[in-house]
Specification:
This protein is mainly alpha-helical. It is about 90% helix and about 0% strand.
């Protein structure tokens, strides 16, 4: 956050909203996904969630000020909040009872690994390039 604070000329309290806002919206979207899954088929819901996450990442990468970056993080959080429970639903649908435990374990491993390694790599990228680069990397991953 210090790099963002300097470039966007914001204080520490304001910068924390980038994390808090994301987590708040993400947390609200997770239970709402059950309702959305009843109303929208899986594929369109997945594409909408990925689209939201992708658009949020693109806007964050080019955000000229804090307000735009905050909006981008909220858009990202909407997509991320839908994707988490949708992934679990998809695993339950695709895998038989015999293979479901393995699939859920593998997904859990990935989910646990990302927060453990992500901040280290992100910190290295930001220290050697720009705080915008991780958002660009996320765009590349989301497009795959």
């Amino acid at each position: 956050l210090p790099h963002i604070m300097r470039e966007l000329n914001i204080n520490e309290n304001t910068s924390q909203w980038l994390i808090t806002g994301f987590m708040l919206v993400n947390g609200v979207m997770i239970p709402l996904t059950a309702y959305l899954m009843d109303k929208v088929k899986t594929r369109p819901l997945y594409l909408g969630a990925m689209g939201s996450f992708l658009i949020g990442s693109i806007v964050a990468a080019i955000a000229p000020n804090f307000g735009v970056l905050m909006i981008a993080r909220v858009i990202q959080a909407v997509g991320a909040g839908i994707l988490m429970p949708l992934m679990q639903f998809t695993l339950f649908t695709l895998f038989s009872k015999e293979h479901r435990g393995f699939a859920m374990g593998l997904a859990g491993l990935v989910i646990q690994f990302a927060p453990a390694i992500g901040p280290t790599f992100t910190g290295l990228i930001i220290d050697n390039a720009s705080w915008r680069v991780p958002f660009i990397v996320i765009v590349g991953i989301a497009l795959v």
